[in-house]
Amino acid sequence: MNHADHLCDFSDGGCSAARRRTKLRRNALPGSTMSGKLPWYHAGLRFGCRGCGNCCTGEPGYVWVVQSEIEQLAEMLSLDVDQFETLFVRNVGRRKSLIEMPNGDCVFLQRPSMRCKVYPARPLQCRTWPFWSSNLRTPEDWAKTAQRCPGTDHGRLYSLKEIDAALDQDR
Fold first, then answer.
1. pTM for the predicted model, two decimal places
2. Distances in Å between the alpha carbon of 163 and those of 14, 32, 113?
3. How does DSSP classify residue 9?
4. For 124-165, where are the E strands, in sequence order?
5. Closest C-alpha among 100, 13, 2, 122 to residue 51
6. What DSSP designation does 127 have?
7. Helices then strands, each counted (H, E), the chain
8. Which tens digits make up the pLDDT trace of 1-46?
9. What value, to the nearest 5°, has the Cα angle with vertex 24 and ends 23 and 25?
C-alpha cells in the first residue's frame, strides 16, 4: 500500500504519512479544548496525503518508537527484535527513535519512489501526521506545514473530534 492509497481514519488510530520533531502535549496548545475554549481549528482541517515523502526527509529529528512498534517493524522485515534494534534504532535518553540516513531521510524512505518501506507497520508518530501539536499551535504553524506538505489544506475534512483523537495519541 502506498501513501496515496491510505487516507487517515483516526477512529481506529490510523493515518497517513509522517515524521519529525517531538510533539508537544495537547494541553499546551493555546485555545485547546482542555482550557475550555475551542481551538482555532474547531471547524476542522483538510488533509489528503499526496505520497510526496516530504514528511520523511529534511531536517534531523526523532521518530519515536515503543517496544510494540519495534516488534511489528521487525516482524515486517523478517528480523528478530535484537537485529532490528541494532540496525534501525537509536537510544535517546530513556526513549528510542528510528535512525536517519546522513541526508536526514528516514531510514525506511525509499528513493526515488519516495515510498515508505514499512508503511503498513509505520509508527504511531507517522500515522498521526500532520495532526501534531507542533503543527496546530497557531494558524501560522499550520500554514508552515502546508508549505512543505502538499496534502495539508487539501483532501478530506477532518473534524475537531478526529484531530483531537490524533492529538490524544501523543506520547
1. 0.75
2. 12, 11, 29
3. B
4. 156-158
5. 2
6. H
7. 6, 7
8. 333 333 334 333 333 333 333 333 334 454 455 567 999 999 999 9
9. 120
- Measured CA to CA, the distance from residue 161 to residue 86 in angstroms comes to 38
Residues 116 and 97: their CA atoms lie apart, in Å, by 16
Interval 106-144: pLDDT, tens: 999 999 999 999 999 999 999 999 999 999 999 999 999
Which amino acid does the sequence have at 163? Answer: I
Residues 6 or more apart in contact with residue 71 via CB below 8 angstroms: 81
Side chain identity, residue 16 = S
C-alpha cell at 22: 517531538
Side chain identity at residue 93, one-letter code: G
User: Three-class SS of residue 149?
Assistant: coil
Start-to-end CA span in the chain (Å): 26
The span from the CA of 64 to the CA of 62, in Å, is: 6
